[in-house]
Amino acid sequence: MWSLVIRIKKNDNAKGKRVHVLVLDILKKGQISGATVWTGVEGYGKRGKSNVMIEGFSVNMPMVIEVIDELSKLEKILPEVKELIGDNGLITLHEVGVV
Question: Which of 11, 21, 60, 86 has the fewest beta carbons closer than 10 A?
Fold first, then answer.
């Protein structure tokens, strides 16, 4: 099995929607078995810090979308995901052992 991990920011938008919602739409359309969206507390990367505090509430936290499925299925959706994310995130793909 293979793991696809997509790192973005919670407030990232494209086509009038949140990027994580668009990614999930791509995954569902590609018949990927499942995905988990994780929201981080704080982070930083090439676009700077990923945490904006307004009156104690975090607005733009780091977000990770994690998928585990067969490589052939992930390769089919990867070009569309890469086009959507562009330089505004990080996408990794690596082999994993499932027990």
Answer: 86
Provide the number of structural domains found in the chain: 1
DSSP 93: E
User: Under 8 Å CB-to-CB from 79, ≥6 apart: which residues?
Assistant: none
d(CA 58, CA 49): 12
* Distance of alpha carbon 95 from the chain centroid: 17
Look up the CATH number of the domain holding residue 18. Answer: 3.30.70.120
Report phi then psi at 27, rounded to 5. Answer: -65, -45
pLDDT tens for 42-84 read 777 776 666 666 666 656 788 999 999 999 999 999 999 999 9
Identity of residue 5:
V
The pLDDT value recorded for residue 57 is 61
